[in-house]
Design brief:
Blueprint: H1 4-19, H2 28-35, H3 39-51, E1 55-58, E2 62-65, H4 67-89, H5 99-105, H6 111-121, E3 154-161, H7 166-174, E4 182-189, E5 194-199, E6 205-209, H8 210-213, E7 216-220
Antiparallel strand pairs: 1-2, 3-4, 3-7, 4-5, 5-6
The structure holds zinc ion.
Protein backbone atom coordinates (compact mmCIF):
# COMPACT_ATOMS: atom_id res chain seq x y z
CA UNK A 1 0.00 0.00 0.00
CA UNK A 2 1.07 3.58 -0.66
CA UNK A 3 0.97 6.31 2.01
CA UNK A 4 -2.42 7.86 2.63
CA UNK A 5 -1.19 11.15 1.14
CA UNK A 6 -0.17 9.42 -2.08
CA UNK A 7 -3.47 7.55 -2.16
CA UNK A 8 -5.45 10.76 -1.73
CA UNK A 9 -3.60 12.40 -4.62
CA UNK A 10 -4.19 9.40 -6.89
CA UNK A 11 -7.87 9.27 -5.98
CA UNK A 12 -8.24 13.01 -6.59
CA UNK A 13 -6.48 12.92 -9.97
CA UNK A 14 -8.67 9.99 -11.02
CA UNK A 15 -11.82 11.88 -10.01
CA UNK A 16 -10.76 14.98 -11.94
CA UNK A 17 -9.92 12.89 -15.02
CA UNK A 18 -13.42 11.40 -14.86
CA UNK A 19 -14.91 14.88 -14.75
CA UNK A 20 -13.15 15.97 -17.93
CA UNK A 21 -12.65 12.82 -20.01
CA UNK A 22 -11.75 14.86 -23.10
CA UNK A 23 -8.66 16.54 -21.67
CA UNK A 24 -5.77 14.11 -21.17
CA UNK A 25 -4.00 16.16 -18.48
CA UNK A 26 -5.39 17.52 -15.22
CA UNK A 27 -3.96 20.97 -14.34
CA UNK A 28 -2.02 20.92 -11.03
CA UNK A 29 -4.02 23.95 -9.86
CA UNK A 30 -7.18 21.87 -9.90
CA UNK A 31 -5.55 19.06 -7.94
CA UNK A 32 -4.30 21.59 -5.37
CA UNK A 33 -7.71 23.23 -5.11
CA UNK A 34 -9.47 19.91 -4.64
CA UNK A 35 -7.09 18.85 -1.88
CA UNK A 36 -6.97 22.32 -0.28
CA UNK A 37 -3.19 22.59 -0.59
CA UNK A 38 -1.03 25.24 -2.28
CA UNK A 39 -0.01 24.69 -5.92
CA UNK A 40 3.59 24.49 -4.66
CA UNK A 41 2.75 21.59 -2.35
CA UNK A 42 0.91 19.78 -5.12
CA UNK A 43 3.82 20.30 -7.53
CA UNK A 44 6.28 18.85 -5.01
CA UNK A 45 3.99 15.84 -4.67
CA UNK A 46 3.84 15.41 -8.46
CA UNK A 47 7.59 14.86 -8.50
CA UNK A 48 7.19 12.17 -5.83
CA UNK A 49 4.41 10.46 -7.78
CA UNK A 50 6.59 10.63 -10.87
CA UNK A 51 9.48 9.00 -8.99
CA UNK A 52 7.14 6.25 -7.80
CA UNK A 53 6.09 5.77 -11.44
CA UNK A 54 2.39 6.37 -10.80
CA UNK A 55 1.75 9.36 -13.08
CA UNK A 56 2.74 11.09 -16.27
CA UNK A 57 3.51 14.65 -15.31
CA UNK A 58 4.38 17.53 -17.60
CA UNK A 59 5.37 20.66 -15.65
CA UNK A 60 3.06 23.63 -16.28
CA UNK A 61 0.76 21.39 -18.35
CA UNK A 62 -0.66 18.84 -15.93
CA UNK A 63 -0.77 15.29 -14.75
CA UNK A 64 -2.46 12.01 -15.64
CA UNK A 65 -2.39 8.60 -14.02
CA UNK A 66 -0.41 5.86 -15.74
CA UNK A 67 -1.53 2.22 -15.59
CA UNK A 68 -0.03 1.64 -12.13
CA UNK A 69 -1.46 4.92 -10.81
CA UNK A 70 -4.91 4.13 -12.12
CA UNK A 71 -4.80 0.68 -10.55
CA UNK A 72 -3.78 2.12 -7.18
CA UNK A 73 -6.46 4.84 -7.38
CA UNK A 74 -9.16 2.30 -8.11
CA UNK A 75 -8.05 0.14 -5.19
CA UNK A 76 -8.52 3.11 -2.86
CA UNK A 77 -11.93 3.83 -4.36
CA UNK A 78 -12.90 0.19 -4.00
CA UNK A 79 -11.95 0.25 -0.33
CA UNK A 80 -13.76 3.56 0.22
CA UNK A 81 -16.99 2.50 -1.42
CA UNK A 82 -17.07 -0.98 0.10
CA UNK A 83 -16.45 0.52 3.54
CA UNK A 84 -19.36 2.94 3.02
CA UNK A 85 -21.59 0.07 1.95
CA UNK A 86 -20.54 -1.99 4.94
CA UNK A 87 -21.16 0.86 7.39
CA UNK A 88 -24.66 1.42 6.01
CA UNK A 89 -25.79 -2.13 5.21
CA UNK A 90 -24.20 -4.10 8.02
CA UNK A 91 -23.51 -1.56 10.75
CA UNK A 92 -26.69 0.44 10.04
CA UNK A 93 -25.08 3.85 10.07
CA UNK A 94 -26.88 6.66 8.26
CA UNK A 95 -25.78 7.21 4.64
CA UNK A 96 -25.11 10.86 5.47
CA UNK A 97 -22.42 10.09 8.04
CA UNK A 98 -20.30 7.35 6.45
CA UNK A 99 -18.15 9.35 4.02
CA UNK A 100 -15.83 10.82 6.65
CA UNK A 101 -15.34 7.40 8.26
CA UNK A 102 -14.53 5.90 4.86
CA UNK A 103 -12.01 8.67 4.16
CA UNK A 104 -9.97 7.31 7.07
CA UNK A 105 -10.63 3.57 6.76
CA UNK A 106 -9.91 3.46 3.00
CA UNK A 107 -6.20 3.77 3.83
CA UNK A 108 -5.96 1.06 6.47
CA UNK A 109 -8.33 -1.79 5.58
CA UNK A 110 -6.41 -4.95 4.68
CA UNK A 111 -7.17 -6.93 1.53
CA UNK A 112 -8.29 -9.85 3.67
CA UNK A 113 -10.82 -7.77 5.59
CA UNK A 114 -12.02 -6.12 2.40
CA UNK A 115 -12.65 -9.46 0.72
CA UNK A 116 -14.66 -10.59 3.73
CA UNK A 117 -16.71 -7.36 3.75
CA UNK A 118 -17.39 -7.75 0.04
CA UNK A 119 -18.63 -11.31 0.67
CA UNK A 120 -20.86 -10.28 3.57
CA UNK A 121 -22.39 -7.57 1.39
CA UNK A 122 -23.03 -9.99 -1.50
CA UNK A 123 -20.56 -8.27 -3.87
CA UNK A 124 -22.37 -4.95 -4.33
CA UNK A 125 -21.81 -2.98 -7.54
CA UNK A 126 -22.68 0.46 -6.10
CA UNK A 127 -22.17 2.22 -2.78
CA UNK A 128 -24.95 3.88 -0.72
CA UNK A 129 -24.56 7.10 -2.72
CA UNK A 130 -24.90 5.21 -6.01
CA UNK A 131 -21.21 5.43 -6.93
CA UNK A 132 -19.93 2.37 -8.84
CA UNK A 133 -17.58 0.13 -6.87
CA UNK A 134 -14.47 -0.83 -8.86
CA UNK A 135 -13.98 -4.61 -9.02
CA UNK A 136 -10.87 -6.22 -7.56
CA UNK A 137 -9.62 -6.48 -11.16
CA UNK A 138 -9.86 -2.69 -11.48
CA UNK A 139 -12.95 -2.50 -13.70
CA UNK A 140 -15.43 0.27 -12.98
CA UNK A 141 -19.08 -0.32 -13.86
CA UNK A 142 -20.05 2.40 -16.35
CA UNK A 143 -22.59 4.99 -15.30
CA UNK A 144 -24.62 7.72 -16.97
CA UNK A 145 -23.22 11.18 -16.26
CA UNK A 146 -26.46 13.02 -17.01
CA UNK A 147 -27.42 15.34 -14.14
CA UNK A 148 -30.97 16.30 -13.25
CA UNK A 149 -29.98 19.92 -13.89
CA UNK A 150 -29.68 19.14 -17.63
CA UNK A 151 -32.99 17.29 -17.95
CA UNK A 152 -36.26 18.31 -19.55
CA UNK A 153 -39.54 17.50 -17.79
CA UNK A 154 -40.15 13.75 -17.67
CA UNK A 155 -39.66 10.61 -15.59
CA UNK A 156 -36.26 9.64 -14.20
CA UNK A 157 -34.57 7.29 -11.80
CA UNK A 158 -32.00 8.81 -9.48
CA UNK A 159 -28.81 6.78 -9.86
CA UNK A 160 -26.21 8.66 -7.86
CA UNK A 161 -25.67 11.58 -5.51
CA UNK A 162 -22.34 13.23 -6.23
CA UNK A 163 -22.00 15.20 -3.00
CA UNK A 164 -20.74 14.15 0.42
CA UNK A 165 -21.91 16.90 2.79
CA UNK A 166 -23.91 15.23 5.60
CA UNK A 167 -26.46 18.07 5.85
CA UNK A 168 -27.08 17.93 2.10
CA UNK A 169 -27.55 14.14 2.19
CA UNK A 170 -29.91 14.39 5.17
CA UNK A 171 -31.95 17.00 3.33
CA UNK A 172 -32.18 14.76 0.25
CA UNK A 173 -33.26 11.79 2.36
CA UNK A 174 -36.01 13.92 3.91
CA UNK A 175 -37.28 14.61 0.40
CA UNK A 176 -37.17 10.87 -0.32
CA UNK A 177 -34.31 11.33 -2.79
CA UNK A 178 -31.92 8.38 -2.65
CA UNK A 179 -30.31 6.26 -5.37
CA UNK A 180 -32.95 4.06 -6.98
CA UNK A 181 -35.76 6.55 -6.35
CA UNK A 182 -38.18 7.31 -9.15
CA UNK A 183 -38.90 10.98 -9.71
CA UNK A 184 -40.93 13.10 -12.07
CA UNK A 185 -39.47 16.40 -13.19
CA UNK A 186 -42.52 18.59 -13.59
CA UNK A 187 -41.13 21.99 -14.39
CA UNK A 188 -37.99 24.06 -14.64
CA UNK A 189 -38.06 27.71 -13.65
CA UNK A 190 -35.03 29.24 -15.28
CA UNK A 191 -35.57 32.65 -13.66
CA UNK A 192 -35.73 31.31 -10.11
CA UNK A 193 -33.15 28.58 -10.95
CA UNK A 194 -35.38 25.90 -9.44
CA UNK A 195 -36.80 22.55 -10.47
CA UNK A 196 -40.18 21.23 -9.37
CA UNK A 197 -40.31 17.48 -8.74
CA UNK A 198 -42.60 14.72 -7.60
CA UNK A 199 -40.71 12.07 -5.68
CA UNK A 200 -42.05 8.51 -5.72
CA UNK A 201 -42.44 8.14 -1.96
CA UNK A 202 -43.49 11.71 -1.17
CA UNK A 203 -47.07 12.86 -1.75
CA UNK A 204 -46.23 16.47 -2.52
CA UNK A 205 -44.32 18.43 -5.06
CA UNK A 206 -40.93 19.64 -3.95
CA UNK A 207 -38.65 22.34 -5.27
CA UNK A 208 -34.91 22.02 -5.42
CA UNK A 209 -32.28 24.46 -6.64
CA UNK A 210 -30.44 24.04 -9.91
CA UNK A 211 -27.15 23.73 -8.01
CA UNK A 212 -28.54 20.84 -5.93
CA UNK A 213 -29.78 19.19 -9.16
CA UNK A 214 -26.23 19.30 -10.54
CA UNK A 215 -25.23 16.78 -7.85
CA UNK A 216 -27.92 14.30 -8.86
CA UNK A 217 -27.20 11.80 -11.64
CA UNK A 218 -30.24 10.32 -13.33
CA UNK A 219 -31.34 8.01 -16.14
CA UNK A 220 -34.67 8.25 -17.96
CA UNK A 221 -37.20 5.95 -16.27
ZN1 LIG B 1 -17.59 8.66 0.26
Amino acid sequence: MHSSTVENYLKTIWGLQQRSPDSPLVPIGRVAEKLSVTPGTATTMMNQLLKQELVDYIPRKGVSLNVAGRKAALQVLRRHRLVESFLVEIMKLDWAEVHEEAEVLEHVISERLLTRMDQMLGHPTHDPHGAPIPTSEGEVPSQSTQTLAECSPGDYTLTRVRENRPDFLQWLAQLGLKPGTFLRLIARDSFADTLTLMVAEGPDQVQISLSAAKSLLVVPA
